[in-house]
Structure formats: C-alpha cells, structure tokens
Amino acid sequence: MSRNRIVIDVQDVVKTYEERRIHALNGATLQVREGEFVAITGPSGCGKSTLLHLIAALDRPDSGRIIVNGVDLAQMRDLSLYRAHQVGLVFQLHNLLPTLSASANVQLPMYEAELSFWQRRTKAQQLLEAVGLGDRAGTPPTKLSGGERQRVAIARALANDPPILLADEPTGNLDSKAGQMVLELLRSIQEERGVTLVLVSHDLQIAAAAQRIVRMLDGRVVDEGEAPSAAAREAVEEER
Amino acid sequence: MPFFMLIFRNLLRQRVRTLLTAFGISLGITTVIALGVVTDSLRATAQDILKAGGSDFAIAQSGSADITYSTVTEEQLQAVAAYDGVEHATGVLLAVSRLGSNPYFIQLGLDPSDLEYFQVPLLAGRHLAPDAPNEILLGQEAASQLDKKVGDTVELKDRTFTVVGTYRTGNTYEDGGGMLPLATVQEYERKQGLITLIYVKAKPGTDLDALTAQIKDDHPELATLRTLSDYADVDQGLQLMDAANLAISFLAVFIGGIGVMNTMVMSVMERTREFGILRAVGWRPRRVLAMVLGESILLCLIGAVIGSILAVFFTRLILVFPVVRSFLDPQYTPEVFLRGLVVGVAVALLGALYPAIRAVRLAPIQAIRYE
User: Fold this and answer.
1) Does residue B322 fall inside a structural domain?
2) Residues B281 and B341 in one domain
3) Do B67 and B205 belong to one domain?
4) Contacts of A107 in chain B (CB under 8 A)
5) Is some CB atom of chain B closer than 8 A to the CB atom of A53?
6) N or C: which end of chain B has fewer CB within 10 A?
7) One domain, residues B115 and B262
8) What is the helix (H) or strand (E) element at residue B223, kind and residue range?
9) B41 and B61 share one domain
10) Quick one: average pLDDT of B90-107?
11) Contact at 8 Å (CB) between A6 and A31?
C-alpha cells in the first residue's frame, strides 16, 4: 500500500446549524495521505472540530463529499461500523464512562469486533500498558488524573486497530506537562503503528508537532503550511 | 466485561430507583401469580369434586350456574343406576352452612349404604349407621379445625350430631367437610327427593365415552362431568376466575409498563451523553437497543423473582384462615410462575420500547454535547 495514497478526501463540504443561520463549514476541502500526521488549526469557531466530527461520521454534511479509504461516507450503510473499525476518536474531554474501570472503558469499542470477553480484556490490558497505564486497569476514570484519563481515551481509540486516529483538542484540558506527554504518545503511536493522525488544536505549538499544518478560517481551509523540520519541532519542544 | 455485566452494572448505578421499580413490578406479578395459584387450586378442587368417592364421572343438572345449585331427582338417580355399564350410582346432596368458625362447611348427604361404594377410608370410628339420622363423619381437616374426635358432638342447623368417625380421602373438599345421612340433609335443606350430584362407578371394561354419551342422549337435562371442561358447563366460577386473572394480568402489564417506562426514560435521559459516546466509539443502534431492553428485562426479572416469592408467601399466609384451608390446597405449578415471568417480560418490553428507541435515535454528536 502506497504511503502517498489519499485516505481522507474532504471535497467542498458545507455544514450549517440552526436552520442554516450558522455556517460552520463553507466549502472545506482537505486531503490527508496515509500515515500522515496533520494538524488542523485556526481560531475558535473556524469549523475545525466540525470538520473532524464529519470525518468521524458523528454528523453528516449538508453538501460536499467525504471519502475515506475510497468510500464516500454518504454512501456507507452502517456508519457505526465505520466508527468502530476505521477511525479512533480522542476528544478534548476524555468522554470516558465514569462508572466503568479504565479497562472496561477501553473495551467499549471492542463489543463490535466480535472478540470474546477474555480477548477483550487481554487486548485492553495491552493497550493500557502501551499508554503507560498497565497498573491502572481496574481504576475508574474518577480516580485518574487528567493526563491519565486522556491516555485511557487514546487506548480506547486504538481498541479496534483503526487506520485513522482523530484527535479533537486532545491536550486542551491538560496542563502543559500532561499535554506534552499526551502529544508525545499520539506521535509515537502514529510513527510506530503507521496510523494516519489528524489532530485539531488551536494551539500552534501543539500543531507544530505535526508533519503538516492546515489552517482554517470561517469554515474553509485557507492555508496549508509546510511540514516543520525535525529540528524545528525539537526547537518548539525545547521552547515548551 | 461481559455485555450482561455491563447491563447489570447500569442497573446498580441507581440502586434505590432500581429496587423501588422492581418492587412496583413485583406487586403486579404477585397478584398475577397468587391469583393463578388460587385459580389452579380451585380447579384442582373442582377436579376433586368430579372424582369424589373414586367415581369415574359425575352427573349434574345441565346448565346450572354453580354446581351447588344443581338439582337432580332421585328418580333420575335410579334411571342412571339402571344403565348396563353402571356398577353403582351414588346420589349426593351438597349443602354449605356455618359450623363453628367455618361459615362454609361443606356437607355431603349420602345414603349410609352407599359408603361401601363411595370410597371413604376411615381414620377412626365407623361409618354412618342406617337409620341413625344424627350421625356425622368428619373429614380430617374439618375435625382438626373443629378440634373434634370420635364421640364428640357438633351443632349444625340447630341439631346436634355425634361424630362417629373421621376420614381422609385426600380430596380437599371432602376432607374439609363432613358426610351425613342423605335423608337428614334433604330434610334440613328442605330438598326431599332431590340430590345435587350423581357419582357413577362404571363396570370394569365399560366404554365411558359411550356410556356418558348415552346418558346425555337419554337425559338432555343432565350433564355428565368427566373433565374440567365439562365442569365449566355446570359452574361458571372457574371461568370467572380465569377472566379475572386475564384482566388483572393485562392491568399488571399496563401499570407495570408505565412504571418501567418512567424509570427507563429517566435513565436514558440522564445518560444521553453516555449513549452519544457509545455511538461515537462504534456501537451499532441494535447494541444500544439491546442494552436498554436488557436493563429493562433484567429489572423486570428481579421484579418477577420478588413477585414470585411474595406470591408464595401470601398464598401460604391465607391458609391461616380455616375456611380457606377447607377448600383450597395451593397448587404451585410451573405454568403459573411462567405466567408471572411472561407478564414480567411483557412489562419490560412495553416499558422499554419508547426509551430504547429514543436512545437509538440520538445523534452521536448532539448526545455527546448534551449537558
């Protein structure tokens, strides 16, 4: 499979709310290649989270097309299966279920993967170990720190080995140290697993960790910045 | 975590609400099961009436609303006894009146000479003597309730009767009552020459279908009773009980369903955001549906278990009343508990359908943003 293959193709997407009074996206267009780490940035209300939610099939566009791995989402019969297997989602608020343990939270997407109880448990444990929380499997989110919760959310996003990881302001609610740790984790996952990572952040320093930065304004992609060099990224990290 | 455990844990989140709802459901199920037990017990008693004295079938007046209102003449008794296939026909006059603390003491008036054919195993004493109008045999349950033994006397219909024997047939309505000379009962009931039922013992090898058909053809005013279905032709009591049971079952489903719906709607609304998350991580609508319905069904199963326990408790409790004990021997059949279970599941499905559909229809992104 070619690394230059386009896995996400957003074509002239429009999305409005409140009977078309609010235009969240005004013909947004974006292409993301396989294995790429793209950061979408822009001011608050520019439509970056809306775009990510549409790619995640959490909502449907008014017009335009979103093609993921060659399949138009509008033509897809079962978007639940797409969300379960094609994309992993990390939200700004971790969105873990507080009554379940970390392990049980990680297992949630696996119910749609036809894995046995033991397979689910083993895999959840492996994923928690991968995010450095192997010893916190039985702990509920309420007893975890913000950074730990977000790492559990990342483990949950990886539950069904999706080829695409979508992260919406994943560090937005964390202090800088925890935020940096989460960012590092996402980047290492992207590199080691070869997943395509699309990260939304209003923070340019966070966005600088990506290979390509896409800037949005008023519901459109207005600029695609050059990928910062490794040296530049290191400089940004040192600055942080 | 197994999917079932996920459902179970969801119910444990609001323990008090879960318990109160389950208790509410259980009351409906208790009523359904208890009524079922009582109906089945009365049915068993009716079966006992048909087979009293070891007879093959009974004969009553056709079309009577209640079997105790059946009126058959002694001439008809003689006519039945004359059939070739009949070994013996015993005429019994049923009467019900107060005796001691029991306002519904059942009296079976029969000719003392018939006791030889009417199988009455004595526990103590002897059978009724011919030409002894003031003797009585007491069933074991009646003797126990009245605290009477052979040689004691009982006051019945302003007369004094001497207990000459006690018996146990294993038949609830016989053991809860007493046997007296037919002429005596006819006299105080002012039913000279009349009886209530004819108990027929057929000769060995007789075709009972043919015999009963012949009797019905020859005597259309009589009804032959071999089964409970035949019994319903001469007593509408069981049919009324069945109808009441069905009506109460529907009411229990409806009222219980409203209660479950209330609980489940609240639960779904409180967990709107959670459903959004589950849909966002890839749960299919049918899994969300299964979870909500599963919670409701589990809730109702808990209610069914509590309801079953309460039903057994209450049906045992009513036996402290001697009057009930004399004609009711609770029958705990699997069918009656199955009926309770069916009502429970019906309540669950009825109550959870709307909230489940609501949960499924939530748009993931709107649900996640729900505060």
Assistant:
1) yes
2) yes
3) yes
4) 1
5) yes
6) C
7) no
8) strand B222-225
9) no
10) 88
11) yes
**Chain B residues with CB-CB distance to A95 below 8 A:** 273, 277, 280, 368
B314 and B292 assigned to the same domain = yes
**Contact state of A80 with B285 under an 8 Å Cβ cutoff:** yes
* pTM metric for this prediction: 0.73
Distance from C-alpha of A155 to C-alpha of B349, rounded to nearest angstrom: 36
Residue A211 clears pLDDT 80, i.e. is over it: yes
Side chain identity at B231, as an amino acid letter? Y
Residue B52 in domain:
no
Contact yes or no for A100 and B364 at CB 8 A:
no
Residue B272 to chain A, least CA–CA distance (Å): 12
Give yes or no: residues B187 and B323 share one domain. Answer: no
Looking at residue A100, its pLDDT comes to 92
Residue B16 makes CB contacts below 8 A (sequence gap 6+) with none
- Judged by a CB distance cut-off of 8 A, whether residue A107 touches chain B is yes
Q: What is the DSSP string of A34-89?
A: TT-EEEEE-STTSSHHHHHHHHTTSS--SEEEEEETTEEGGG-S-HHHHHHHTEEE
Sequence-distant contacts of A132-136: CB under 8 A, at least 24 apart? A132/A185, A133/A102, A136/A102
Residues B169-174: what's their mean pLDDT? 83
Q: Is residue B18 part of a domain?
A: yes
Q: Is A118 on the interface with B (CB under 8 A)?
A: no
Mean per-residue pLDDT over chain B, rounded? 87
Is A105 buried (19+), middle (13-18) or exposed (0-12) by CB count in 10 A? buried
- CA distances to B17, B111, B164, B256, B310 from B301, rounded to whole Å, are 15, 54, 53, 12, 14
Domain boundary among B192, B225, B258: B225
Same domain, B78 and B199: yes
ipTM of the complex: 0.89
Considering only the beta carbons, identify the residue of A58, A91, A108 that sits closest to B278.
A108
User: In this structure, are B37 and B79 located in the same domain?
Assistant: no
Residue B85 lies in a domain: yes
Q: State pLDDT tens for residues A214-232.
A: 999 999 998 877 655 544 5
Distance CA B103, CA B107 (A): 12
Q: What's the pLDDT score for residue A1?
A: 45
Put simply, whether A159 touches B (Cβ < 8 Å) is yes
DSSP B305-338: HHHHHHHHHHHHHGGGSHHHHTT------HHHHH
Mean pLDDT on A116-121: 92
Q: Do B1 and A78 touch (CB under 8 A)?
A: no
Range of the domain at B147: 57-225
Q: Which residues pair with B109 in a beta bridge?
A: B93, B180
Give the residue from B170, B199, B225 where a domain finishes: B225
Q: Among A182-196, B104-118, B245-259, B272-286, which stretch is predicted with the lowest mean pLDDT? A: B245-259
Is A114 an interface residue toward B (CB < 8 Å)? no
How many domains, chain B?
2
